[in-house]
Structures
1.
Amino acid sequence: MSDTKVKKMLFILSKATLENVYAAFVMANGARMEGIESEIFFTFFGLEAIQKKKLEHLHVATVGNPAMHMPTMLGGLPGVEALASNMMKKEMDKLDMPPVGEFLEILSDSGCKLWACKLAVDMFHLEEKDLIDDLDGILTIGDFYSRADQDGTQLLFI
Amino acid sequence: MDKTIAQATVSVDQEGYLTDFSQWNKEIGTEIAKEQGIEMTDKHWEIIDFIQDKFKNEEPLSIRGIKKSGVINIKEFYALFPGGPLKKATMIAGIPKPKSCI
């Protein structure tokens, strides 16, 4: 148990772009490293990050992302998104940032709970076998809120 | 600032990390661990040795490095140093708190 006022961080990850997935992972891992409990609820496109077949193929958004400093039309050309994603993955590797699959293992081993959103799982016609083995379960939003029901809990939507 | 740990005077920073590794010894490590609520065992010392080696070789510490260490897995690491394992282990080891975000 931590001495901090924040006792538990709950993240809702709704997007599957690399920048959003890593933001959630780094913060969830950072919480555990500080002795704070953490959990991630993967919903809508966020589910891509826990699908066995998709998690190593996530991209950065090159279109509609002004911080890429790239004309939107260029960002939309075939291959540009893949190129930018590979460049970013290389930079992250230099900082010893693990790839998505390994990061999920680290999170799970660190005691971070990983949940899939039931509604989104049904909507994308996914089954449990499509999702990572380290998944802690499939929850409704009600179940998730009940996990937030204690003092010092913060919820963050990414 | 100076602090007396295990009958020795050592300099520490505001959070209690030793600022001069040469002042560290096992008794000091054991005492800091007690303050953190940790009773040191052989397994604990094995990890402390590992992270001190990393420090001496100026290699950055991260949770990923622990995973790859071959000394311990992440689950055991959290179990041995509950409530912020790398933070506590580095304090016991007498080295600075890791600056990495991972």
2.
Amino acid sequence: MALRRRRRARPVLSTVLPGGALPPPSALELERRAWRTRRARRSTLVALASTLLFAVVAYLAVTRSPGWPRVQATFFSPSAALDALPEIAEGLLVNLQVLVVGGLLVLLVGLGTAALRTLRGPAWAPLRILATVYVDLFRGIPLIIVLYLVGFGFPALGLQGVPTSPFVLGTAAIVLVYSAYVAEVFRAGIESVHPSQRAAARSLGLTHRQTMRIVVLPQALRTVTPALLNDFVALQKDVGLISVLGAIDAVRSAQIQVGQTFNFTPYVVAGLLFVLLAVPSARLADAVTARARRRQQSGSLL
Amino acid sequence: MSVLELRNIVKAFGSNVVLRGVDLAVDEHRVVALIGGSGSGKSTLLRCASLLETVDDGQVLLDGEDVTDPRVDADRVRRRMGVVFQAYNLFPHLSVLDNVTLAPTAVHGRPRAEAVEEARGLLARIGLADKAAEYPDRLSGGQQQRVAIVRALAVRPRVLLLDEVTSALDPELVGEVLALVREVAGQGMTIVMATHEMGFARQVADTVAFLDGGVLLESGPPAQVLGEPEHPRTRQFLARVIDAGRL
């Protein structure tokens, strides 16, 4: 590094003291900081006051409405909620199972489909086309129609070995639809990795597969994690749709109880349970997104 | 026999013809500097030589073997060349050490322990032994580019292709990268480098080749091409470089 040694020392431009310690703040800076603190405190107070005011107004508007006593008794009955809770919670376990099994399968099928779509070369054309058709088809059909077709169509074939359990068929339908979405998320991630990364990997002699596995996919996964978590939050509530096939999940349990008591509170209970399930995932998605943004801002061009 | 020989290389992107039949032979232990303005085809020529682009005509011969033959496995050929890019192109999700050991282990199947030992040796030589566990974005541009050079050297290539390796660097970081290139050249590595650093080309290169509009207008010893250029286009180019204070 002879060239480097020959270079002149850089002139010192900053006012940072030797040893890296900051000089004590000037009176001007202290005054600015005090002003910022005062302003932040005032903003918090204003926000609190306006939130409270809004809550009070909303509460009064709803509870003073003429139909409120009936609505309260039909939708927000504490006793009906308590009665319904155990069975709905039990049903929610079914939803959770679909969520876990389905979620994992969606990741696998989605990644596989995305990988098929990025294949090049004429030999892979049939698989590439198949993957494209699959994604186009299942992104277009409403989930509930897929549920009906898979849930009632497959058993109707009467084939040996075709499962008839609404749990299995419902999961299959959800996996079919969500994998199509997730495949597109993965593909966007793969394409977001800069071509120069591929060039660097190929120039080292890595094969297409090695380049994909070692260089492209790890970077793509990092990019798409927030989007994947977002899809996971959506999946969490859509697993409730398997109730249309007759699986005794949280929604179906609520429906049964509504039918018995003519009180709609169980639906509210089931809805609240799904919300409770979704909140942590949503917060996690936010946190991961924020972290990814920070990484990107601190990182280099690549 | 030349280590790398380019014969009548033609390359077009759509209707834009970038290379119009370039011939260049690089003998072992020689350093060839490609000079020329932006868009003259320097980078494209290097990308064709490293098989990152498919040539539209002509041949690339590596140790006498025609590697542009479609029956040749391009992955195997690329293992025998090292490429360093203008924007470093380190893998941001891998540590410095993993960047350097990736090709020796994944491509050449060498034992990890051995590859790590050699990589640490190489990093120590460029004064970055203590950065082995860091990720590339924690390094300065000059440090990243030196790691990229070491990464290319770790596969023990027959020829090193350097594509404007200092163009993305702050002026004060250019020196450390050029010093490394000089050292590598001094150890006998065969090098083809596209560069705007005329002073460096004059000192280090055995041959300077001037590309203009996709044609190799003249080539020869640096003193001749940079000192007494024959072709008017070369003189014009060098005059502009001198005006810009780069020579």
3.
Amino acid sequence: MSGPDRKSADPPAAAAAAEGRIRLLRLLRQGIVFLILLALVGLFASQSDRFLDARNLSNILEQNAALVVVAVAVALTMITGGIDLSVGSVAAFAGALSAGLVVQLGWPPGLALPAALAVAAGMGAVNGVLVVRGGLPPFVATLAMLGIARGLTLLYTGGRPIGIARVEAYTFLGRGEVVLPGLGVAVATPVLIAALVVLLASLLLRYSRVGLQAYALGGSEETARLAGVPVQRIKVLAYASSGLLAGVAGLLLTARLYSAQPQVAVGLELEAIAAAVLGGVSLFGGIGTAWSAALGGLLIGVLGNGMNLLQIASYQQQMIQGAVLVAAVALDQLLRRQRTRVGN
Amino acid sequence: MDEASAPDAPLLSLRGLEKSFPGVRALRAVDFEVRAGEIMALVGENGAGKSTLMKILNGVDRPDAGSLRWRGREGFPASPAEAQAAGISMIHQELALVPDLDVGRNLFLGREPRWGPGLVDRRRLYREAQEELDQLGLAVDARATVRDYPLAQQQMIEVAKALSLRARLLVMDEPTSSLTGREVEVLFERMRSLRSRGIALVFISHRMEEIFAIADRITIMRDGAVVSVDPAANLDADEVIRRMVGREVGDPGEGGGWPAVAADAEPLLEVEGLGRGRAFRDISFRLQPGEILGVSGLVGAGRTELAEALFGVRPAEVGRLRVQGREQRIRHPGDALRAGIALVPEDRKGQGLFLGMSVGANTVMAVLSRFLAAGLFLRHGRLRRVAEQFVERLRVRTPSVRQEVRNLSGGNQQKVVIAKWLALEPKVLILDEPTRGIDVGAKAEIYRLMRSLAAEGMGILMISSELPEILGVSTRILVLHEGRLAGSFLPAETDSDELMRAATGTRAVAAGEGAAG
């Protein structure tokens, strides 16, 4: 009980040491996913000479850009103590809507894509309002939206893909490259977009007021409410952001596939939740970061890619993915217990 | 029935119980006994050790030393299930029924009569449940849902459940706290008939008139020790209260040196006729700058509810409230904070802290908007400096403001909760049980902090169940009894006996005193 009290003998030195230990543990906790990722990379590199090939590596990044973005999306709602199951369906609807607007209605992509994103954000906001005003558990509200958005997608597309092969904006989005000014390095557009999403979300969560309040809300909603935190507003904001990011992922998927597929991103929400959990985001709220959720997404991508190279059959792949999830979370729990002990 | 012991030998006897928690000696050399066919009242102030004693009896806690003899056998129950199997049942203040299940299934929860493997014999279940209910003379249908019965009936359903477990000893912890006068009468009638069947009852209550109406003997506890065991006929309410409170009143803060209260200063807070449902009614008082107004009363007297109303957690329904002369309507905590009222809640961990967040984040959570740059991002350097200032000012013992609050001791956690509100510079600070679960040294620091805040002109409302704390820290004392003001006292002119009498409603207090201030 009186752990911290005992160390007041030499305040500055003891404080600095304690500070260092707290930081180290925090980094370790969030970085566990990074360590596992490194281990996997090492494993696959030793087993397959094609794995470390630059084209394979950039392929992994491009293929998983959308997953990384939705992992960040669900991490946002999970941090507030909620969950968003509708990201896959909302992504599909945003992709289909943008393609329809461009191909069938002749909207310029510069208008159609933002419009689709706005609709996706709106769907997320509806989730938030259902949770906040309707008193629905987030699981139920977003499960309903999962069904509704998928149904809307099928209705809108008539169940058939909308091809967008000749639209330049999509080609750029899905397969293009951007040369970073000053560095002279070319980065695939979807990778750049995913990186920007991760960066922005991380900055907002860590350095903004709403970010800190989101953690507070997830940590203890009651305390947050009593501290004057606008609990409802922050929740709606979290779900709207999640919808917006799902929309971004939908556009990336559509562009990559050269068409809006009505059945795209089925089950993406579960992969995204797995990614966030791998990244140490707590299902009970209050804990986790955007960048570690993104690393969780990459981990899933690397695992899949490596297993493909090693020609592991897809049935076994699913089992291995499950096992990795269990192992990573168990390790995380172990580390978390460690932390409390050291803290005392 | 298998007891063949002498008629007067105790059914239950506990000897020399000792139990310590970190920083507290909860029980010291406690002896306690109950005979078959006896109603034993167990009384004591909040924190006297009654609950600890009952937890040991019920197998929730193990004592550090001592012995238990139950129906001729030695040994402590290892779990509530074991206690139940041995015939000791506990009926808690909060009901332990599943409200949406029917009565029968509640009675047999977890031990349903079987009809083949994995199947429940429903006919037998409801038949036996109904027999059990009828035996108690209850007009309760075993197939009806528990939720549909009034609280008093639910209480009796719990009794039926305990009896269906072949209980030989029933512990009833404040069973009357949610009952009306008539319902209490019915309950007592049933208790007497249980007694005549040879069942032993332990009745825990604060209400003197009830204790004297029902109890055969009274065990009085104070500060973790048993003060006396006497037949009820040899005692009266004043004597019981005198023994509960004791003569020597501990000195929680080195007495004297009250912050000067300017009598003519404008009151910070004026409350008139505040009320909400049955929780509290007709509450009027004033709080001056520099005052520490102690609010005393028994558990359930409406103290916490009053605090929650002042802070807008559960708003008052009637009455008026002024802060520095300006009428305020407090509908939610945001209103209260804007008006300058802050609450340090009783449930520190659930309502006061973000356990997983750092000391720094906890400290500044209520004032984030002061640190905004470009309307969005926080100035982290300044946040940190402010948090560090508070840590230093309140002497929070933490290696760093980055430390998670979870890892601090109770006293230091409480300081962090207080720091969160001080950052907001409130005019009125309400503290609900500010030193609960805090060790002695840290208590003194919290008292010192309250005094210095009052000296700076803040008005403090302190709710506390500990009379020494109320008497030692307050500049004025309000006592609540069943949702109403039962009196207003000055610490120098009163003592714990008088406060306890007001809190138990034992002696009527002149009506005018309620609104003094």
4.
Amino acid sequence: MGQAIRDAGIRKVSQARQRILDRLRQGLADPKIPWPPADTPPLTPGEHMHVATLRAEDAGLEQRFAAELEKLHGSSDIADSMVAARMFTVQKILEWLDDTGPRRVLAWSELNSWLPGLEENLFDRDVEVVVPESLNSLDTRGDLQEIRVGITGVEVAFAATGSVLLKSTPGQSRSASLLPLNHIALIPGTRLLPNVETWLEQHQQDGSLGHAIRNSANLTLVSGPSKSADIESKLTLGVHGPKELHAVLYPAAG
Amino acid sequence: MRSRIDIEAPFKTRVKQAVDDPLLADTLTRATLHLKEQKRLSLEELESQRLRDQMRQMKAHTLRNLPELLERFEHNVVMNGGQVHWAEDADEANRIIGELAERHHVRKVVKSKSMATEEIHLNRHLEAKGITCVETDLGEYIIQLAAEIPSHIVAPVIHKRIDEISDLFADKLSMPRTLDPQALCARARVELRQEFLSADMGISGCNFAIADTGTVCIVTNEGNGRMVSTLPRVYVAVMGIEKLVPTPQDAFLQYQSLTRSATGQRVTVYLSMTSGPRRPEDVDGPEEFHVVLMDNGRSRMLADGYGESLMCIRCGACLNVCPVYRQISGHGYGNTYSGPIGAVISPLLSEEMAHNKDLPYASTLCGACRDACPVQIDLPKMLLNLRHDLVSGRNMPGTERRAMQGFVGVTSRPAAYQAAARVARTGTRLLSGFGDRNLRRLPPPLHHWTRQRDFPPMAKQSFREWWAKRSGTRGSAK
């Protein structure tokens, strides 16, 4: 009996699928329909226009990134060495951790692989780096609610729009860039590109684009702190995600 | 503090309620002009016509190949570990989501802004099963507190002033009254954060989905889209079958066209791209990922000759330039989808066919919507086609049909036309007290016309008289 009902359910589902596809095919086969035209070619890779581009007056990728992020109510430091980058990062974190809240930051794993020595620097300043293994129970999440600062790296960053692309992996939580009120993103120079189209073209050329998009459960493009203009078109910040986003740009090692 | 417009009322009643609200048109004009100007600024820095042309080509190609792209998308979502459900209509979509919720013992759902779930009235359906639905977009949250429906595709509370919102928060959340938007926003953050953390299921719409990779993309500024697709155990995305794009490159083209056209932003704060449930060892993310592919009248629209409207990317640009929208507001349209695009698709979507036959007339056919559209949908032409289809279906009210027949009779005979025009000229000037004021009410049976519109008094002299005089003057000057 249960099996029969289940079978009926599956049959009904596949019926919907078949009926929808049949109706579409039937409609498209009718030469009298005014739209879509029969012979519209796809946009081929490389044909897509670059929507946001660098300008002649842009001094460099770092400067353009910083200028764009500032327009989006974010902030940044451009460091000329990893030592300087570490200093900027620690400084910003200490500024955000006031005396009332816990001295803890929610981070991606292996911060030192992004900026060597950062974990030690934070330890020295009495800041605990929290890297959760799982955030799937309410208990662990509730515990993290008090944490006010999140630290992440980036998959890649785009100068023309002041954007960072974040990828979820076992060491890289989505929560670190989402739950805390402040987010700091570490951007080594090798990961800074002119715009998203450049990144797409690079992956297209070496055949890895599909993999780059779908090999993690989630990719998020972040451009500035969380905001809304729902109330009388007036800007409000930190609606659900971070209220402040700070980027630290620095030359990669070597 | 409810909207003065009763969306269940007949169209003409809704229009009257909108026009009678003295502040509504001001509020809407200010907000839509702001959006329109932001859009203009963001598009003038690039080759905007090329962007429109590429978008139109990409969307036309997608529609032409929709069945194959849907199959490819389904295959890829499954390969990513997700599940795909097909729904022919609103009832089926609601049933699928309801059953999913029951199977997972869901008591609370958090939702990010979604026109698709508004279209099928999902909240009503889930609440009837005892499931709490929380809207988490700030604007939608306000709408839900006020027990209204959104009045704009991208700016749901565009019709509300801040003092009204403050009163609402005072009433529903016992918050002290304030005119500081940041304070209202901060309060909503605290309220909604608890909801995100305790919800069992997240539901979103879908701005576009990539067939080649099985990826669902949602575009937000607040971050609620990230929350609903990250924190609850189960994440469900509800999408119309026309939301596909073939490739990642197409997706980013549409993303940037959408953000610039909707709010004039180069990019929104967040673009969340979900390819399946969380992978083993991932720190966070949903255990299950479901996609509901919904037809609900769309395949029929294609077959009936309205396929062009399926290219719509729901940016709302046509609303922001529409003179009718500014007067009657989104609620005047009485539907999920408002503005020029709403006037086209609302009567065509299966659920809403019956009570929407007036909507194709909610347009002056001025063409501003077509010029604003990022995919260049010919909305005025489709509104005309709809009117034609409705009239030939004999759905037109009897008085209007007879009036139109009379109008055709008079205008096709010059003598009769001139005589009629003379009567009208004297009559309307008499009624306006020989001033230039618009007539609020014409005598019966013409009062039906002025119930929702003003009638301008006719000019002192006819065009023919003016032309004859003008040629005479010019002739004597020679």
